[in-house]
């Protein structure tokens, strides 16, 4: 379609002026955009109150959709499950047999653990869960990985609290509004979590790559001991993330680390737990050595 | 400002007695559709990778191409601000890129007043590619670098999604000009 005729301003002063004004407004938009970007590059948290207000305002609708989302997921899973049932069943029976024997081992370890804790007088109270909530929204068209939680300051959330699902670590609270909070997912490029391998405690860091995978880097240089299929958990080094929270499985080994796939896909998590930020307790015995 | 397209008889439904397009509807629909296209898709999935096309930008682009001049040249400023609140991009990135895109389309209109499908598609596709790469670079400016292959699926999906969004906007345009009962 041809542009509207009013565009060609001709000799009319008024038309010329309004055309000039609209062009100026376009340029002003560009300039304001540039200024805003510079401000947010210098201080990324500068517009957090605005974002919090916006998230609070849309929170009721987002929560309603979140309910529908998990319902839709369930329907989809039931349908695909129906078609895969036979082979799944056989495989599950085999896995169950293995799991039963593992369970017995785990019980033994648990008992031993309790005994050792008694000895050390370490009592863990489960006062660390602040809130149980749903993830209501995310940023599906950006390379940054944020999600929005359906609870905020009203449930006692604070900046920096780790967020996890039943399966594993999801992220941490970045900005808190009145009824919603913004979560930095562990797959975001700005997220850096200290980790260790479950087997032997090889220590390292996991940084998000923005595409659902993590880049694992080891603290110790030298021969890379990682193997495909290894499970990594958060190590708790430096505080914040509770040690031992499951995080990811290594899928690809690189020269100085690995690529890992996150265990707890935030889309599958109906509910997530917001925990109190973890702080390492003072060592009970006088040992200056840090844990690996 | 309902000049041009809205008063012509060759588009929109046939006039009927006591029915006329509502000026409020005609003005509100484009703005509202862009805002909704920005906000609503963020509710449907907790994404672990950029997987949705930037629906807000695509709708904005489609309105500017379908009805040049309906959204003013400065519309990128308020609409981009809304997008920045929800998109997760560094604040201001949509304001900048939407304003630039609006100016680019405006410029193309002046150069090629009579366009065909190929030109429109080419302009839109190149703007979408530039927009996604621009957003990627701007978010890298603020955060740590994400690998470039992260945005490739999104790029492809967006290019294929644009004609569909264009259709949808055309439907909304009909709705915008539907004759409603006028009470006098």
Write out key terms for the chains shown.
heterodimer, A: 292 residues, alpha+beta, seven-stranded antiparallel β-sheet, six-stranded antiparallel β-barrel, 3 helices, elongated, B: 184 residues, mainly alpha, two-stranded antiparallel sheet, 6 helices, 60% helix, 3% strand, globular
Q: What is the mean pLDDT of chain B? A: 86
Q: Ends of chain B: how far apart?
A: 21 Å
Secondary-structure element pattern of chain A, one letter each: HHHEEEEEEEEEEEEE
- Overall mean pLDDT score of chain A? 83
Oligomer, anyone? heterodimer
Low-confidence spans of chain B: none
- Count the beta strands of chain B: 2
Based on CA atoms alone, the radius of gyration of chain A comes out at: 25 Å
Characterize the biggest β-sheet of chain B: 2 strands, antiparallel
Give the H and E element order of chain B: EHHHHHHE
Number of helices of chain A: 3
Portion in beta strands of chain B = under 5%
Q: What's the total count of β strands of chain A?
A: 13
Low-confidence runs of chain A: none
Q: Order of strands side by side in the largest beta sheet of chain B? A: 1-2
Largest sheet of chain A: 7 strands, antiparallel
Structural class by secondary-structure content of chain A? alpha+beta
Spatial separation of the terminal alpha carbons of chain A? 68 Å
> Helical amount among residues of chain B, as a percent range?
55-70%
Helix coverage percent of chain A: 25-40%
Shape of chain B: globular
Main location (chain B): membrane
Subcellular location (chain B): Cell membrane
InterPro entries (chain B): Cell_shape_determining_MreD
Keywords (chain B): Cell membrane, Cell shape, Membrane, Transmembrane, Transmembrane helix
């Amino acid at each position: 379609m041809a542009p509207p005729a009013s565009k060609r301003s001709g000799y009319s002063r008024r038309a010329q002026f309004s055309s000039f004004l609209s062009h100026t407004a376009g340029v002003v938009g560009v300039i304001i955009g540039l200024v805003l970007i510079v401000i947010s590059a210098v201080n990324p948290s500068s517009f957090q109150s605005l974002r919090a207000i916006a998230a609070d305002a849309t929170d009721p609708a987002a929560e309603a959709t979140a309910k529908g989302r998990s319902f839709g997921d369930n329907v989809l899973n039931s349908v695909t499950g129906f078609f895969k049932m036979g082979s799944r069943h056989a495989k599950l029976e085999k896995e169950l047999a293995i799991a039963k024997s593992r369970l017995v081992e785990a019980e033994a370890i648990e008992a031993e653990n309790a005994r050792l804790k008694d000895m050390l007088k370490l009592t863990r109270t489960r006062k660390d869960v602040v809130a149980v909530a749903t993830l209501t929204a995310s940023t599906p068209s950006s390379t940054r990985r944020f999600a929005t939680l359906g609870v905020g300051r009203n449930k006692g959330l604070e900046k920096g609290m780790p967020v996890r699902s039943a399966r594993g670590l999801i992220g941490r609270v970045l900005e808190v509004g009145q009824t919603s909070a913004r979560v930095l997912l562990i797959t975001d490029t700005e997220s850096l979590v200290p980790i260790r391998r479950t087997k032997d405690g090889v220590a390292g860091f996991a940084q998000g790559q923005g595409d659902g995978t993590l880049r694992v880097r080891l603290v110790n240089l030298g021969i890379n001991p990682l193997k495909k299929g290894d499970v990594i958990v958060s190590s708790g080094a430096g505080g914040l993330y509770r040690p031992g929270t499951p995080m990811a499985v290594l899928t690809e080994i690189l020269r100085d680390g690995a690529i890992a796939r996150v265990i707890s896909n935030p889309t599958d998590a109906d509910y997530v737990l917001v925990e109190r930020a973890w702080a390492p307790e003072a060592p009970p015995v006088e040992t200056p050595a840090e844990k690996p | 400002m309902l000049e041009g397209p809205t008063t012509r008889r060759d588009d929109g439904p046939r006039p009927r007695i006591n029915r006329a397009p509502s000026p409020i509807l005609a003005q509100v629909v484009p703005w509202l559709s862009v805002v909704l296209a920005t906000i609503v898709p963020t509710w449907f999935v907790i994404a672990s990778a950029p997987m949705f096309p930037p629906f807000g930008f695509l709708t904005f682009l489609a309105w500017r191409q379908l009805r040049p001049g309906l959204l003013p040249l400065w519309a990128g400023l308020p609409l981009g601000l809304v997008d920045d609140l929800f998109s997760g991009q560094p604040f201001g990135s949509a304001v900048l890129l939407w304003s630039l895109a609006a100016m680019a389309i405006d410029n193309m209109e002046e150069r090629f007043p009579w366009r065909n499908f190929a030109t429109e598609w080419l302009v839109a596709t190149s703007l979408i590619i530039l927009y996604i790469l621009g957003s990627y670079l701007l978010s890298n400016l603020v955060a740590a670098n994400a690998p470039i292959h992260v945005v490739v699926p999104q790029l492809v999906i967006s290019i294929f999604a644009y004609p569909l969004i264009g259709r949808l906007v055309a439907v909304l345009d009909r709705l915008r000009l539907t004759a409603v009962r006028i009470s006098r």
